């Protein structure tokens, strides 16, 4: 009993310690943002490694998710003679939920883990300490540009995911299943609201981008500077981002679409 | 230097594709006219029963979308549902004796308000009330009525036999 309580207390303390470190770290990163914007070349390099290199996985996943959604929804809708509703069903589920959430999960796997591993290895090879020796703030030089790049990339990647997914379901629905093309788009346009659905989806992806990038750079910066520590930090990035994104998604959905 | 330039071009392409995707979502997927529907003028109509009508349902005239329902309220004095309709500003010559009805598109479709033009020379303005209204047809009531009529009809036919 005694040991059990002790383990609980230890776990709780280390959890809140990490949470506190994470928040202090976030604050320092945010104060480092102006200087990162000053060295925009660094941000562009990170936009390349975080954003451009993620397009492939985001595009392919978006396309297949859209195509599968189109196929599955069609099979259900056709029973009710409502196959013209394929457009709004696919568009709403992609724009509201699947686009931001799946893009964030893929982003954590593709870009977040890379960020953590890179920063963790920099720490393990004492590059970060070296920078501090030369009076270069690693937060401003290394962390802040990566944070900005992730924050900018995520909403764009989520939008690409949704758009490609809708195109994928269009190809399946119109090309393979014979849904009327005019009904597909016009029903979609009458059901999908710009502010209610599209803008709320973009807000979600902005929040997810913020959280996913924060977790990724913090785990790297906070990693135990050994081979094993970096590998653990990378794993934690993916797992914690997934938890955070799914939990926040529920909260945001309840806030945005909860009433009525 | 060439490397940096290449990276910048790729990042530029990425941002362009991302913004293009956002624009596609805004223009092609959702209805951009949602912005302009905040203008226009509001009129009210009182119904005995609105069935499943909700805010944001379309208002049509001869099948053409002319506005949206912006709110549904209940009038405790008249015991009627008060439906506020926002009509797009370009449809400014709808006669005051226009009648409004609540219909359903298809069997399971959504409810909408259909307007039937009247003949007056005076036109609806902001704050006008549409007085000629026709309640929603509630399917359960119709079935009940039909069964009741049928039962009554059977009874009377039996009475005739005797």
Note down, in words, how this protein is organized:
The complex is a heterodimer of chains A (260) and B (162). Chain A has 260 residues and is mainly alpha-helical. Chain A has one domain (33-251). In chain A, 87% of the residues lie in helices and 0% in strands. Chain A has helices at 2-38, 40-50, 55-77, 86-124, 127-133, 138-176, 181-191, 194-222, 227-257. In chain A, helix 1 crosses helix 6, helix 4 packs parallel to helix 8 and helix 6 (138-176) crosses helix 8. Chain B is of the alpha/beta class and 162 residues long. Chain B folds into two domains: 2-30; 33-136. In chain B, 31% of the residues lie in helices and 30% in strands. Chain B has two helices and eight strands; from the N terminus they run αββββββββα. Chain B has helices at residues 2-29, 139-161, and strands at 41-47, 58-61, 64-75, 80-87, 99-104, 111-116, 129-130, 132-134. Chain B has an eight-stranded mixed sheet, with no helix packed on it. Chain B is elongated. The model of chain B has no long low-confidence stretch (mean pLDDT 82). The interface between A and B is medium-sized, with 36 and 29 residues.
**Describe the biggest sheet of chain A?**
none
- The proportion of residues in beta strands of chain B is 25-35%
User: Largest interface by residue count?
Assistant: A-B, 36 and 29 residues
State the end-to-end CA separation of chain A: 48 Å
Q: Output the structural class of chain B.
A: alpha/beta
Please indicate the percent range of residues of chain A in DSSP E strands (runs of 2 or more). under 5%
Principal-axes shape call of chain A: elongated
Total domain count of chain A = 1
H/E element sequence of chain B: HEEEEEEEEH
Order of helices and strands of chain A: HHHHHHHHH
- Share of residues in helices of chain A: over 70%
Structure classification of chain A: mainly alpha
Cα-atom radius of gyration of chain B:
25 Å
* Shape call of chain B: elongated
| Mean pLDDT over the full residue set of chain A | 90
Q: Would you report the number of β strands of chain A?
A: 0
């Amino acid at each position: 009993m005694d040991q059990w309580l002790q383990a609980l207390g230890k776990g709780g303390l280390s959890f809140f310690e990490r949470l506190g470190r994470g928040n202090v770290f976030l604050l320092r990163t945010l104060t480092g943002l102006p200087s990162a914007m000053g060295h925009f070349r660094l941000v562009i390099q990170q936009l390349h490694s975080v954003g451009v290199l993620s397009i492939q996985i985001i595009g392919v996943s978006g396309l297949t998710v859209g195509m599968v959604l189109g196929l599955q929804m069609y099979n259900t809708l056709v029973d009710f003679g409502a196959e013209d509703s394929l457009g709004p069903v696919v568009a709403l589920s992609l724009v509201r939920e699947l686009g931001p959430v799946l893009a964030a999960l893929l982003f954590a796997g593709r870009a977040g883990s890379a960020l953590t591993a890179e920063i963790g290895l920099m720490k393990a090879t004492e590059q970060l300490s070296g920078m501090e020796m030369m009076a270069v703030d690693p937060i401003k030089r290394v962390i802040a540009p990566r944070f900005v790049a992730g924050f900018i990339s995520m909403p764009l990647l989520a939008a690409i995911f949704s758009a490609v997914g809708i195109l994928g379901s269009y190809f399946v629905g119109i090309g393979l299943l014979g849904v009327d093309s005019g009904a597909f788009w016009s029903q979609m346009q009458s059901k999908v609201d710009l502010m209610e659905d599209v803008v709320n989806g973009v807000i979600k992806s902005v929040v997810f981008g913020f959280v996913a990038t924060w977790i990724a750079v913090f785990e790297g910066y906070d990693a135990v500077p050994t081979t094993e520590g970096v590998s653990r930090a990378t794993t934690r990035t993916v797992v914690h981002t997934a938890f955070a994104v799914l939990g926040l998604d529920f909260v945001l959905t309840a806030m945005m679409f909860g009433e009525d | 230097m060439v490397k940096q330039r290449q990276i910048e071009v790729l990042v530029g392409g990425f941002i362009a594709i991302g913004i293009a995707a956002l624009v596609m979502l805004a223009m092609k997927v959702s209805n951009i006219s949602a912005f302009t529907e905040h203008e226009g003028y509001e009129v009210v109509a009182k119904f005995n029963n609105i069935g499943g009508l909700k805010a944001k349902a379309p208002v049509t005239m001869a099948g053409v979308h002319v506005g949206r329902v912006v709110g549904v309220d209940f009038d405790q004095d008249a015991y009627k549902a008060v439906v506020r309709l926002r009509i797009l500003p370009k449809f400014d010559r709808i006669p005051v004796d226009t009648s409004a009805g609540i219909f359903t598109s298809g069997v399971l479709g959504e409810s909408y308000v259909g307007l039937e033009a009247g003949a007056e020379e005076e036109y609806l303005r902001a704050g006008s009330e549409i007085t000629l209204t026709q309640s929603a047809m509630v399917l359960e009531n119709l079935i009940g009525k039909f069964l009741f009529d049928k039962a009554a009809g059977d009874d009377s036919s039996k009475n005739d036999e005797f």
